[in-house]
Amino acid sequence: MALRLAQEAELDLVEVAPNSKPPVAKIMDYGKFKYEAAQKAKEARRNQVNTDLKEVRFRLKIDVHDYETKRKRAEGFLLGGDKVKAMILFRGREQSRPEQGVRLLQKFAEEIAEFGVVESRPTQDGRNMTMIIAPLKNKSDVKGEQNAKRAAQKAERRATEHAAKDQNADAPAAAVAPAQDTAPAESDSPAE
């Protein structure tokens, strides 16, 4: 009976739960169903976000301006929802003073505390000392906020365009006609 109903409606009979007693079937357009499922999967993949580990490298004897540049770069990474790996490279005699590296990394962590939290404390790994800082907002939240802001800007732009079109449509045709009359009079003058 279900097969006859599906044929009359020119749709497909799809078995939804074949293992249940009695088996459950549904009348639907199977091609449309597969298309919509593929679109949902594509949208889910597009909205998927992966947090990256960005790296900021210092030297122990870093200048103030260079330090500020690296700090601002790390703040940008954290605002974007990415983790930051702060690394100090030791060379030569600098390796015998790891406490200076710890102080520099702690200063760095204090200055960017409003953008992220320290995930792992400074650890020395051979000639390098590293510290990982995690963002306060995860990347999916940041991306959602950016998408919402873009949508609001797009809607605002469309509203101003529609308002401009409405203003132009309300302008009287007589105001446009004199401008057209003066143009041919100017072109009638002889060119020298």
Secondary-structure topology with pairs:
Layout: H1 2-8, E1 12-17, E2 24-28, H2 30-47, E3 53-59, H3 64-79, E4 83-89, H4 98-111, E5 116-125, E6 128-135, H5 139-170, H6 173-188
Parallel strand pairs: 3-4
Antiparallel strand pairs: 1-2, 4-6, 5-6
Q: Roughly how much helix do the residues carry, as a percent range?
A: 40-55%
| Basic shape | elongated
Distance between the termini: 91 Å
Helical segment count:
6
Number of strands: 6
Low-confidence stretches: none
**Radius of gyration (Å):** 33 Å
Note the beta-strand portion: 15-25%
Largest sheet composition: 4 strands, mixed
Q: Mean pLDDT, as a whole number?
A: 83
- What topology, given as strand order, has the largest sheet? 3-4-6-5
**Elements, N to C (H/E):** HEEHEHEHEEHH
Task: Give me the secondary-structure category.
Answer: alpha+beta
What's this model, at a glance?
With 192 residues, the protein is of the alpha+beta class. It is built from 6 helices and 6 strands; from the N terminus they run αββαβαβαββαα. Helix content is 54%, strand content 22%.
Structure overview:
This protein has 192 residues and is an alpha+beta fold. The protein is 54% helix and 22% strand. The protein has helices spanning 2-8, 30-47, 64-79, 98-111, 139-170, 173-188, and strands at 12-17, 24-28, 53-59, 83-89, 116-125, 128-135. Strands 3-4-6-5 form a four-stranded mixed β-sheet, with helices on one face. The chain has a two-stranded antiparallel sheet with strand order 1-2. The longest helix has 32 residues, at 139-170. The radius of gyration is 33 Å and the shape is elongated. The protein starts with a helix and ends with a helix. The mean pLDDT is 83.
